[in-house]
Amino acid sequence: MKCKFPGFSPQALTFLRSLKRNNRREWFQPRKDQYETLIKLPMLELIGCLNEEFARFAPHYVTPPQKATYRIYRDTRFAKDKSPYKTHISAIFPRSTAVKREGAVFYFHFTEKELLVFGGVYMPEREELLAYRTLLQERYRELQEILRDSKLRRTCGQLQGEKLSRVPKGFPGDHPAESLLRNKQWYLEKMLDIRAVTSSKLLPELAKHFEMMTPMVEFMNQALAQKRKPQKMMFAAF
User: Fold this and answer.
1) Does 211 fall in a domain?
2) Is position 5 within any domain?
3) CATH number, domain with residue 84
4) Beta-ladder partners of 190
5) Is residue 3 domain-resident?
6) pLDDT at position 227
7) Which of 27, 78, 191, 214 could bridge to 22 as Cys pair (CB 3.0-4.6 Å)?
């Protein structure tokens, strides 16, 4: 039987709205049971349902709900903002081959005001950046073809991400994909109607957008597969 998720209770958004105004342990701790009931447990249920969808169109991104869900508690040790709790509820789905959530991922979050769905690369480390650009230098036409899909453009918009002012050192400045090579991030992102959070539309809307983003996410992750190949061959030799 196909998994169904009815949506979060409207009280979940009311809770987040109140948390934003009262981001203090003295306020949260007496209401922790409300958080568990209104947000945490339904979120785990939603992710379980999303995993059933991923099994259909992107099985390598099925992620245990407890691992996919971000904690609501903020690490304030090195932050100027000492608010102890996050006011957005979020989940991430890295590829099963990823190390420490590296690579292109699927992600979504919601606050009391917005619902965001995301697929791609957001904060890559230096070696990752090099791997993505090496892939794009050689196979940029494949990504361009993916991004030209009219249904993808209608559903998820255009490729986004911060760019350098010039092509990075080691890559030709006159490369036909110089715009892609200048990127520091490569992702698709869409703001959805916040009303979906409290309705049965939430699961199918997230699944629809993730499915559309899958070819782009999988393409970008080929960069990391290529990066690991020499290492695997070296171990095989021993």
Assistant:
1) yes
2) no
3) 3.30.930
4) 117
5) no
6) 61
7) 27
Contacts for 126-130: CB closer than 8 Å, 24+ residues apart: 127/227, 128/102, 128/103, 128/223, 128/224, 129/184
pLDDT in tens, 91-112: 999 999 988 778 999 999 999 9
Note down the domain range covering 30. Answer: 10-237
Q: Total domain count for the chain?
A: 1
Overall pTM surpassing 0.85 (yes/no) = yes
Beta strand residue intervals within the chain, DSSP E: 89-93, 105-110, 115-121, 186-192
What sign results for the dihedral spanned by CA atoms 196, 198, 199, 203? positive
What are the residues whose beta carbons fall under 8 Å from the beta carbon of 84, sequence distance 6 or more? 23, 24, 25, 28, 73, 74, 76
Q: For 58, which DSSP code?
A: -
Residue among 112, 111, 114, 71 nearest 91 (CA): 71
Q: What is the mean pLDDT of the chain?
A: 93
**Three-class secondary structure of residue 183 per DSSP:** strand
Residue 173 belongs to what H/E stretch?
none
Quick check: is 48 in a domain? yes
Backbone angles phi, psi at 17, to 5 degrees: -65, -40
